[in-house]
């Protein structure tokens, strides 16, 4: 983590200032940058993530872990089903999840209206594919 960056920028991003767009970690999600990576000199990224209405869930994210110091997910709309290690976890609107550094996980199902706020440090965290933590996976719920 860039612990020596001087953080001297004020940031105030309004809903119309940035838009949801593709090009993030997953093509089946849309991302809205909230300006925090720039304001913190890369120490933290904060963005809104939502389901891409044109790409419903089929296979999910695959098993992976993030190389980071801190990560939380705050579900603001809808729901998502994750596997954290070998445990299925339903995360619904209003839930807050601290994903400890390096936890093996897999987002495999989510609602069409799913939207969450994600905060990660450092901003340029890496994602690494890993072997499945379990062979038993619940099914994806098709969008109707």
Automatic annotation (TrEMBL):
SUPFAM superfamilies: RmlC-like cupins
Domain of life: Bacteria
Pfam families: Cupin_2 (PF07883)
Domain Cupin type-2: 55-119
Gene3D superfamilies cross-referenced by the UniProt entry: Jelly Rolls
InterPro entries in the record: Cupin_2, RmlC-like_jellyroll, RmlC_Cupin_sf
Coiled-coil annotated spans: none
Membrane-spanning segments: none
Name of this chain's protein: Cupin
């Amino acid at each position: 983590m860039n612990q020596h960056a001087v953080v001297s920028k004020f940031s105030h991003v309004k809903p119309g200032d940035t838009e949801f767009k593709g090009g993030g970690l997953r093509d089946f999600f849309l991302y809205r940058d909230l300006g925090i990576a720039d304001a913190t000199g890369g120490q933290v990224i904060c963005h809104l993530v939502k389901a891409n209405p044109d790409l419903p869930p089929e296979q999910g994210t695959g098993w992976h872990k993030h190389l980071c110091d801190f990560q939380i997910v705050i579900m603001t709309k809808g729901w998502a089903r994750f596997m954290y290690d070998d445990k299925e976890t339903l995360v619904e609107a209003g839930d807050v999840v601290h994903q400890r550094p390096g936890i093996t996980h897999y987002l495999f199902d989510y609602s069409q209206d799913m939207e969450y706020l994600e905060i990660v440090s450092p901003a340029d965290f890496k994602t690494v594919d890993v072997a499945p933590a379990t062979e038993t996976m619940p099914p994806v719920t098709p969008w109707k």
